[in-house]
Write a structure and sequence with these properties.
Length: 602
């Protein structure tokens, strides 16, 4: 084993908006990595969207040189990875943590420990990292430092005096954080003489250099012009260049064991250079074992994106292809819908990911697509077959007589909330198909609640509902725990006794009546009246479970009568009735796109 004595690899982990990027700014400033004149807020957040929302979407590495005040004769190389905080990007965070030896755990003194602080901390502990706890934003008037420290002691089991205080905004205490990084985080281990093994923790497409693989070199060395191979995707390519992040790209002769840097591969798609994969040198005779932890990232949430104008379809496809160049987790395929025309079925990691893609389409390509209600992927087994089929919508559901079982994704949901809102949150969870697991008091005022719940129950409105019942104080985080068999059925919607495929959906059997009633009521308001009666029905198989009726227009055919025998009146009414019956058999119900949107749109 060869040790790079004066190198420290670390990352900053925190809940959204706890000040990761601002602390990273101060560290870059203090180490002189970025000149004062080039400095701007949230420097490592390269997208405008990240700056406006105050969240990190794309992780960003930076290499710094630091001389501690205590022993200034030594110079240290610090490699920082600024990670996303949101639950949707959990896999990226886990690979970033696998690339480093230590983590700075940042907690906002005004908000205390929140849900994603915990989930990211658990990931760091799983990887065996040295954790340095820091209370941030201590300069704010409403900062409650003592209470926040007690919460950190509870979740981390450290001593209170080990917790550092800092302010990313003013720079207070940042020097102490840097000294703790040098003293506590171990230097990277690795053998430069062994065959190359490099962990990809992110990748990005560059127009001139092809895909840039952001890597941590675990063993061996890599330099320009050697042939490399990705072990999971089996793709081969020649190295165009290698280098470090300063934080902009800086070419170097070679990267060696313990280094964090980039390899320009010349590949044309990030699909070939996946996060978590291992890079090795092609043709190396020694047996090389891939690094552990790689998994293929699969989209969890699907939604339809449709252009508002039919002729914008091709332009939208080009825009989505450009977005996919930098985002391997985003997938799309063409689909069409009776109401919305031609569009795309897109897969996302979660709702934030969907929101980001939508916003980038608007900003970068001037598209405001119509988005259908997000749904999840189901796994289906048919009778007499052991094969599992993945289905994305109700239209792909097999016939109920052939269906053996259907499974849906379940998540472990963690909610951190002030104890005063405990009752209203339990009430909210009672409206979902949730299983209560545990309650843990972080301190006298804050509670951690754990549930297991189907993903489909929490992907549409749950976050907004949670914020409503807790006055904005509760935070949530979820992890996929796998697929479970559920009692799910296909619910058909019939208009004038004709099934409308585009409106059918998969629902839990217990919720079918409630969901069916909601849809038929929405359609009753959205579909215009005709000259004949239109029944709107929700049905499970042959059984109607909810119905609304759109009353017809009625022409007063007896208005011209003024007296005479009653048979004259009945004759005219019978004639009208026959006409309506005939019209009902001939007339088709034209469903306007607004009616589809009322049901499909988020």
């Amino acid at each position: 084993m060869i040790e790079q004595k004066n190198v420290r690899n670390f990352c900053i982990i925190a809940h959204i908006d706890h000040g990761k990027s601002t602390l990273a700014d101060r560290i870059l400033e203090l180490t002189g990595t970025v000149e004062k004149r080039k400095m701007k807020e949230q420097l490592l957040d390269s997208m405008d969207l990240e700056r406006e929302r105050g969240i990190t979407i794309k992780l960003q590495p930076a290499r710094m040189t630091y001389k501690p005040l205590a022993h200034s004769q030594d110079e240290y190389t610090l490699n920082l990875i600024d990670t996303p905080g949101h639950v949707d990007f959990g896999y990226e965070v886990s690979r970033s943590l696998a690339a480093v030896e230590g983590a700075v755990l940042l907690v906002d003194a005004t908000k205390g420990v929140q849900a994603q602080t915990l989930s990211n901390l658990y990931l760091a502990i799983e990887q065996g990292l040295e954790v340095i706890p820091v209370v941030n934003k201590v300069d704010l008037p409403n900062a409650n430092v003592e209470k926040t420290k007690k919460e950190i002691v509870h979740i981390l089991g450290c001593k209170e005096e080990e917790i550092l205080e800092a302010s990313g905004k003013t720079g207070m205490g940042v020097e102490k954080v840097l000294e703790a990084i040098v003293e506590k985080i171990p230097s990277p281990q690795g053998d430069a003489a062994k065959p190359l093994r490099a962990l990809i923790f992110d990748s990005k497409y560059d127009t001139y250099k092809g895909v840039l693989a952001y890597v941590r070199i675990v063993d061996g060395q890599v330099k320009r012009d050697v042939e490399i191979r990705m072990m999971a995707s089996q793709k081969e390519s020649g190295v165009v260049e290698v280098g470090h992040f300063k934080p902009e790209l800086m070419t170097t002769e070679f990267l060696t064991a313990g280094d964090i840097g980039y390899i320009a591969t010349g590949l044309k798609s990030v699909d070939h250079c996946r996060v978590g994969d291992t890079i090795t040198i092609e043709g190396d005779k020694a047996h090389v074992e891939a690094l552990p932890g790689y998994k293929e990232v699969r989209p969890m949430v699907y939604a339809g994106l449709y252009p508002l104008e039919g002729d914008a379809y091709n332009m939208m496809r080009d825009s989505l292809e450009k977005l996919k160049l930098n985002d391997a987790a985003f997938v799309f395929e063409p689909e069409s819908n009776l109401a919305l025309g031609k569009g795309f079925r897109c897969g996302f990691l979660g709702l934030l990911h969907l929101e980001i893609v939508r916003e980038r389409l608007e900003r970068e390509f001037n598209f405001s697509p119509t988005i259908t209600t997000p749904s999840v992927v189901y796994e289906v087994k048919t009778k007499g077959s052991s094969e599992v089929t993945r289905i994305y919508s109700a239209t792909q559901m097999p016939d109920p007589t052939r269906l053996d079982e259907i499974a849906e994704p379940f998540v472990k949901l963690e909610i951190i909330t002030p104890a005063t809102y405990l009752g209203s949150i339990m009430e909210l969870m009672g409206t979902l198909r949730s299983t209560y697991l545990n309650t843990e008091y972080i301190d006298m005022e804050r509670v951690l609640l754990t549930f297991e719940v189907p993903l489909t129950d929490i992907i549409v409105n749950f976050h907004d509902d949670l914020k409503s019942v807790s006055s904005g104080y509760a935070s949530m985080s979820y992890d996929l725990v796998g697929y479970r068999v559920s009692d799910l059925v296909k619910m058909d919607i019939l208009l004038a006794e004709e099934p409308v495929e585009a409106l059918s959906r998969i629902v839990p059997r217990d919720w079918a009546h409630r969901e069916g009633k909601r849809i038929v009521e929405k359609l009753k308001d959205a579909i215009p009246r005709q000259n004949f009666v239109i029944p709107i029905q929700a049905a499970l198989g042959g059984k109607v479970i909810a119905r609304e009726t759109i009353r017809p227009f009625r022409k007063d055919v007896i208005a011209k009568l003024y007296g005479g025998d009653v048979t004259r009146k009945n004759k005219l009414l019978d004639k009208q009735k026959k006409g309506k019956k005939k019209m009902k058999n001939i007339g088709k119900v034209q469903v306007p796109s607004e009616a589809y949107l009322a049901v499909l749109k988020r």
